[in-house]
Amino acid sequence: MIKEKSRIVLALGGNALQANPKEISAEAQIETAKETAKSIADLIEAGHEVILAHGNGPQVGQLVATYEAAAQENPSLPIMPFPECGAMSQGYIGYHLQQAIRDELAKRKVDRSVAAIITQVVVDEKDEGFKNPTKPVGSFFTKEEAEVLIKEKGYVMKEDAGRGWRRVVASPIPIDVVEAPIIKTIVDAGHIVITVGGGGVPVVNRNGELIGVPAVIDKDFASEKIAEILNADYLIILTAVEKVAINFNKPNQKELDKITAAEAKQYIEEGHFAPGSMLPKVNAALKFVESKPGRAALITSLEKAMDGIQGKTGTMIIG
Ligand SMILES: Nc1ncnc2c1ncn2[C@@H]1O[C@H](COP(=O)(O)OP(=O)(O)O)[C@@H](O)[C@H]1O
Ligand SMILES: NC(=O)OP(=O)(O)O
């Protein structure tokens, strides 16, 4: 059960933006965002301070692939680098969410402003993530299609939690959120901010100058970072499953209700959480609860967000 009038960083997973992962058009995303806005408005109406973050894996992958395909057809067209595509994805996803949340709040006669902030997140140029790509982006492919893409485009492709093959890219750990001071000012003033979209645009600081780097930061880790910076009470990660499970997808699957940080660590060691999907969520939750006594994290589904907050469902991770 979450305390009344808490400061909550809410990390929205792919299903908050795409009801059907194969349907990634703007129109479909607008419709899904309208549904998502209802769950978010419930939390705002309940009196919580909500800061939103969201993923961009399918969208950034699609943008990069679209530019690559266009340049293949017409070599005079530029290939758009990952940081630019990341910023574009933040922009249009943020636009859909801020519009949907604004409209939903207006319908309920709740007078609050909502704005998405293009957010840069600092990473370390020497991060091991640059050597070993782990972040799935773009569409799902069959093994045969993946083999063609590896050969023809030089992509690194990996199987994604039993759902198909996807391109994977570098995913460094977020160190700092460049726009944190302005985000804090807006949140403290009582407005709703959408930030670290797609984990933030990854940048490195070279002698005081910020430079975008080709990577996609995991939005669960970036959400954890902004939750720490904003001194949030809770990190809530909303995804497609109601609870985290051990022995996931096996006959002896067991859903978890409330676990301690020590139990989470044990389950991680035993390999219960798939890398690139559930593992970063559990790791981000763990990092948050260990960052300060009294902090807790909840992983549940978007539809069950309110029930989760009321302690009726979801997986709660405590210190
Ligand atoms: N141990 C586990 N418990 C529950 N879900 C898991 C587990 N391991 C992998 N998953 C998968 O992880 C998915 C969530 O990851 P993902 O789809 O990448 O997240 P996002 O919602 O951020 O887009 C779940 O829908 C489920 O299919
Ligand atoms: N950037 C990111 O973590 O995106 P997804 O949540 O869509 O994978």
TrEMBL record:
SUPFAM superfamilies assigned = Carbamate kinase-like (SSF53633)
State the source organism's domain of life: Bacteria
Locate the Aspartate/glutamate/uridylate kinase domain: which residues?
A: 7-292
GO biological process per UniProt: L-arginine deiminase pathway
A Pfam family of the record is AA_kinase
Does Transferase appear among the keywords?
A: yes
Gene3D superfamilies per the UniProt record, alphabetical: Acetylglutamate kinase-like
Any idea which UniProt keywords this protein has? Arginine metabolism, Kinase, Transferase
Q: In which pathway does it act?
A: Metabolic intermediate metabolism; carbamoyl phosphate degradation; CO(2) and NH(3) from carbamoyl phosphate: step 1/1
Which catalytic reaction applies to this protein? hydrogencarbonate + NH4(+) + ATP = carbamoyl phosphate + ADP + H2O + H(+)
InterPro entries linked to this entry: AceGlu_kinase-like_sf, Asp/Glu/Uridylate_kinase, Carb_kinase
Q: Determine if Aminoacyl-tRNA synthetase is one of this entry's keywords.
A: no
Q: Name one GO molecular function term.
A: carbamate kinase activity
GO-annotated cellular components:
cytosol
- Family per record: Belongs to the carbamate kinase family.
- This one is known as Carbamate kinase
Q: Which organism is it from?
A: Alkaliphilus pronyensis
